[in-house]
Structures are given as structure tokens and as C-alpha cells.
Design a protein that fits this description.
The structure is a homodimer of 191-residue chains. Chain A is an all-alpha fold and 191 residues long. The first copy, chain A, has two domains: 46 residues, Orthogonal Bundle (Arc Repressor Mutant, subunit A), CATH 1.10.10.60; 137 residues, Tetracycline Repressor, domain 2. The first copy, chain A, is 74% helix and 0% strand. The first copy, chain A, has ten helices and no strands. In chain A, α1 crosses α2 and α5 crosses α6. The first copy, chain A, starts with a helix and ends with a helix. Chains A and B meet through α7, α9 and α10 of A and α7, α9 and α10 of B. Chain A binds a DNA duplex (30 and 30 nucleotides) through α2 and α3.
Chain lengths: 191, 191
DNA sequence: ATTTTCGGAGTGAACATTCACTCCGAAAAA
DNA sequence: TTTTTCGGAGTGAATGTTCACTCCGAAAAT
């Protein structure tokens, strides 16, 4: 097995186990077994479990935002861009439930808080796309004039909640329901 | 110290430690120490850690919903009732950050999923207040005709996100901002 | 042959839970 | 009233388990 394959297998195994059972019920031994790798091998690729967890997050995060960038049409109306982005994001979560569950775990942990703090100040990553979008909306008086953080909450809060409910089987999100949800998010932030 | 005081001290200590550090970084020994109680004593009041965690959740949950019931005016308009409930809920979270953090932890854990599953089918508790409100809104065609679960996501998603951001210090929610947020939630669900 | 990479038994720390014991107020005996 | 006995709440050291991480002989690559 090529060495980069091993790294990939470890990440995949970690994603599966952590998404299903949480950080604390995904022991290194179990990750190693699922990756068909010795426990010690993991430490050849990742300094420790924290690093593994963080790098896996980075990988997923990058994958999502570069994916969203594709098919993004900067020259359509603000509303269209918002709807497109949000729909794509929601679809991604539905199609990749493991990724979603992992990201949620990460966010609801000390790591996640630190990440958001850094992000809010500096920036980086692709969430900027949304920030620019919303700031433009505020400037053009299309979007409510409230702090960016609150706009994020209004836009993402329902999206995440609805994705979670779908993945847990509390509701089945078909295309129509996805569209209605995204529209409702827009209703929440638009003036 | 009266015996019921001890139980209370244990719950208080557990709330503080778990809210701050999470379930897994709040060892029984630490809870015992903060409660000024021997480790073994905890097991006189609670069968095990899981039971302690669950009973603490129940206690907080009941406290919140009975609190919300006060000052609830069943004869005002649908919108007024929604705004009143949501505002009160958001205020409660802001005023009781430990409770909020604890409830979030609980929700984002296997316990929480089981709880919601039971809740969605059967019912019970005070969240029913919201369910009735929203169902009435749908019936009267004031609220969007989409599944209840999605309406909950639209109403609570932003509320929780915003409360989290406030507690983590990413935004300061004053009265005006609270009102605007709740209004935006209403905009999201109303037809 | 030499260097690099693997693997998984081994290690010590941390944890939830238990249990043999203490302690004290209240009841019973004196 | 004074002394003795009793019950059960309270305790924390001891226990067994689980975990992240290490380390060194074996295997693969060069």
C-alpha cells in the first residue's frame, strides 16, 4: 500500500468512527483496526490524536468550500447567489452525512470554538464567500442591517438544524423541501 | 448539611463543570470536590454518572419550560405569542449561560438524540407549547406549510446559534438585537 | 547491506465505580 | 438523666478497565 494511501485510510477510518460514535468513543485502537493499520502507524502520520482530528477537519472544510466555489456565478443577483450557495451546502450535507456529523462534533468542541474565534477576526477559508455576500447585501440594503454574526446565525442555524434532522431521520428532505428551507432562510435575513 | 442540599450541591457542581468542560472532562472526582462531598456520596444520590447527567437535564428542562409558561398570554395574536416565547427563551439562555451550555452538550450527544426521538413521537414537556403554536399557525395559513420539524429548525436554529455566539463573546445581544433576531425568526417561518 | 517504515504488545495515567469503614444523632436501656 | 446501642448517611482508598501513546523487533524499500 502506498504511503499516502495509508494516511488516507486512517483519515477515512477516523471520519467514520468519530462521526458515528463521537471523539471519545473512537479510540485509536479502533481507528487503526478499521484502517487496517497498526496503532503505532497512526503516529507516523499524525503527531497525536488532536492533530489527527484537526487535520481531518481542515481537509473536510477545504473540500466543502472548494466544492461550493464550483458552479458559483458571481454575476447573478444577490438572492440567487445566496440561494445557490445555501442549496449546494445543504445538499452536500445530505449527500455526505458522515462529513456533516464530523463537522458538527468538531464545532461543538473546544477546537471548534477556537476555530471560529480565529475565523471571525482574521478570516481565511471559503466561508468568506458568505461573508462578502452578506456584507454586500447589507450595503445594498437588501439584507437586514444587523451584525454579521447574527446574519450567519440566521442563515446557517436552520440549515444545520434541518440537515441534522434529515440525517437522524426525523424528516426527509426532498428537492422541494430543500428549496423551501433555503427560501425561508432568505426570508429571515432579507429586509 | 441537609440531605436534599447535598443532592442540590452535586447537581450544581455537575452543571458548572460539565457546562465548562464537557461530559468527558468532568470526572466524578472533580464534581465531588466542587460539591464538597466524597466521591462515593454521589452514588448515594445517583445510580451512576449517566443517571446524574440525565436527571440534571430533566431538571433544567422542566425549569425552563415552566418559567416560559409564566407570563404566557394565550389570547394574544399568534405572532405576539411566538415573539414572546422566543424572546423569553433567548433571554433565559443569555441570563443562564451554564444552563445553555449544558443543554447544548446534552443535545449534541446520544442522550439528546434519543430524547428528541421520543419527544417527536409521543410528546410531553413544555416544548409542546411551540408545537401547538406552530400547528395553529399552519392551520390559519399564517405560517409556511412545511413539516413541523423544519419549522422548529427555522425558529430554534438561529436562536440557539445566536445565544451560543453571545455566550462565547462573539456578539453582544442587547434588547434591540434580541428583538431583531426574534423578528427575523418570525420572518423565516411566516408565510 | 542499510535505511525507512510498520505494527502491536507494553506502559502508565485517568477514570467510573465499589466497599469496608467512620461518624453521629437518635432511640433504647439503665 | 445518663449510658449504651443502633442505623444509615458519608467517605475515599482500592479496583479493574480503558485509553493514548511508546518502543523496538520485523518487514519492506532502497
Amino acid at each position: 500500500m502506498a504511503t499516502s494511501e495509508k494516511r488516507h485510510e486512517i483519515l477515512r477510518a477516523a471520519l467514520e468512527l468519530i462521526a458515528e460514535h463521537g471523539f471519545h468513543d473512537a479510540p485509536i485502537a479502533a481507528i487503526a483496526e478499521r484502517a487496517s493499520v497498526g496503532a503505532g502507524t497512526i503516529y507516523r502520520y499524525f503527531e497525536n490524536k488532536d492533530v489527527l482530528i484537526t487535520e481531518l477537519f481542515q481537509e473536510l472544510h477545504d473540500r466543502i468550500w472548494t466544492g461550493l466555489l464550483k458552479g458559483y456565478e458571481p454575476d447573478t443577483s444577490l438572492r440567487e447567489r445566496f440561494v445557490h450557495l445555501s442549496t449546494a451546502l445543504l445538499r452536500y450535507f445530505i449527500d455526505n452525512p458522515l462529513d456533516f456529523r464530523y463537522l458538527e462534533q468538531y464545532h461543538n468542541s473546544p477546537y471548534g470554538v477556537a476555530f471560529r474565534r480565529d475565523r471571525l477576526l482574521g478570516s481565511g477559508g471559503g466561508g468568506d464567500l458568505y461573508r462578502i455576500l452578506l456584507e454586500e447585501g447589507v450595503a445594498q440594503q437588501i439584507v437586514k442591517d444587523i451584525p454579521l454574526v447574527v446574519l450567519f446565525a440566521l442563515a446557517f442555524g436552520p440549515l444545520l438544524a434541518v440537515a441534522r434532522d434529515h440525517i437522524l431521520g426525523f424528516v426527509v428532505l426532498d428537492e422541494s423541501l430543500i428549496a423551501q428551507t433555503v427560501q425561508a432562510c432568505w426570508d429571515g435575513i432579507k429586509r
